[in-house]
């Protein structure tokens, strides 16, 4: 079976492998672009990159309904357990762990991480997935940082990076990110959800494909690619 990566808009990804269903940053309720309802989404594992509401999203409700294991940094894991989430696995930046479906390592991200109730959410992260021989880098919310080059040295099949500007990298820095990461394919995310992060992904894609060797996959909410 191929790995199927569906974009539910914003930073929310649904990754289906032969062994598990992985859900990242499930901001569904209150997300004007979401193509699904929180009540219908499936998950065996949920990943939370940082504490902001547009990433924690529906994590608690989905985890309670599905029994999914939530993977996040140690501080967010503590908070989730206090909110009644039963299965939570803490990791932290630079650390990887082998799960039954593959491995995930937390990477740095330049951003904030306060939780919706103001609790301390540790440091934000990105996720580097190693699944069935493929490497998928989800940068999550971040500004440009030069260490993306180190992540790229691993040989990234797909990089998922923000282009929305204002809260994260905008199109110009996202182009520089692609040059540092050198992925085979890149998917732009974290744009158009709100007026303040409106972007033109097709124009960004044309620039990236002119200036780098990466193929840009512009998805519509609910759209997917397969590896
Ligand atoms: Ni954020
Ligand atoms: Mn965000």
Question: How do the strands and helices of this protein lay out in sequence?
Answer:
Blueprint: E1 4-7, E2 13-16, E3 21-24, E4 45-47, H1 53-56, H2 59-66, E5 69-73, H3 74-82, E6 88-91, E7 96-99, E8 102-108, E9 125-131, E10 134-138, H4 148-152, E11 158-162, H5 171-181, E12 185-189, H6 201-211, E13 215-216, E14 224-226
Helix pairs in contact: 5-6
Keywords, please?
about 230 residues; alpha/beta; Metallo-beta-lactamase, Chain A; 7-stranded mixed beta sheet; 6 helices; about 25% strand; binds nickel (II) ion; binds manganese (II) ion
What does this structure look like?
The protein is α/β, with parallel strands linked by helices. It has one domain: Metallo-beta-lactamase, Chain A (4-Layer Sandwich). The chain is built from six helices and 14 strands. The strands form two sheets. It has a seven-stranded mixed sheet, with helices on one face. Strands 7-8-9-10-11-12-13 form a seven-stranded mixed sheet. The chain is globular and about 50 Å long. The protein starts with a strand and ends with a strand. Manganese (II) ion binds next to helix 1.
Short description:
With 227 residues, the protein is an alpha/beta fold. It has helices at 53-56, 59-66, 74-82, 148-152, 171-181, 201-211; strands spanning 4-7, 13-16, 21-24, 45-47, 69-73, 88-91, 96-99, 102-108, 125-131, 134-138, 158-162, 185-189, 215-216, 224-226. α5 links the parallel β11 and β12 (185-189).
Write the CATH homologous superfamily.
Answer: Ribonuclease Z/Hydroxyacylglutathione hydrolase-like
Neighbour order of strands in the largest sheet = 6-5-4-3-2-1-14
Instruction: Name the assembly state.
Output: single chain
- Average the pLDDT over all residues and give the rounded result: 98
Helix content: 10-25%
Instruction: Give me the CATH fold name.
Output: Metallo-beta-lactamase, Chain A
Number of DSSP helices? Answer: 6
Secondary structure tally: strands: 14
Write down the overall geometry: globular
Distance between the termini: 9 Å
Low-confidence stretches: none
Largest sheet: 7 strands, mixed
Radius of gyration: 16 Å
Order of helices and strands: EEEEHHEHEEEEEHEHEHEE
Count of the separate structural domains: 1
CATH class: Alpha Beta
Provide the list of bound ligands, each named once: nickel (II) ion, manganese (II) ion
């Amino acid at each position: 079976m191929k790995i199927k990566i569906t974009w539910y808009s914003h930073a929310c990804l649904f990754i289906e492998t032969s062994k598990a269903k992985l859900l990242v940053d499930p901001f569904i309720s209150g997300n004007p672009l979401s193509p699904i309802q929180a009540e219908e989404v499936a998950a065996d594992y949920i990943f939370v990159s940082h504490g902001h509401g547009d990433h924690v999203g529906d994590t608690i409700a989905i985890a309670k309904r599905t029994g999914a294991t939530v993977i996040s940094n140690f501080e967010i894991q503590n908070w989730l357990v206090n909110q009644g989430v039963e299965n939570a696995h803490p990791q932290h930046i630079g650390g990887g762990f082998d799960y039954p479906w593959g491995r995930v390592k937390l990477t740095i991200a330049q951003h904030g991480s306060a939780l919706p109730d103001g609790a301390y959410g540790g440091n934000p992260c990105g996720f580097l997935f190693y699944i069935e021989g493929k490497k998928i880098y989800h940068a999550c919310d971040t500004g440009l940082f030069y260490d993306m080059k180190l992540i790229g040295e691993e040989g990234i099949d797909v990089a998922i990076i923000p282009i929305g500007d204002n809260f994260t990298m905008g199109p110009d820095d996202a182009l520089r990110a692609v040059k540092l990461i050198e992925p085979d394919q890149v998917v732009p995310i974290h744009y158009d959800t709100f007026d303040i992060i409106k972007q033109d992904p097709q124009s960004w894609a044309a620039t990236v494909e002119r200036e780098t060797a990466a193929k840009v996959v512009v998805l519509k909410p609910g759209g997917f690619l397969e590896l």
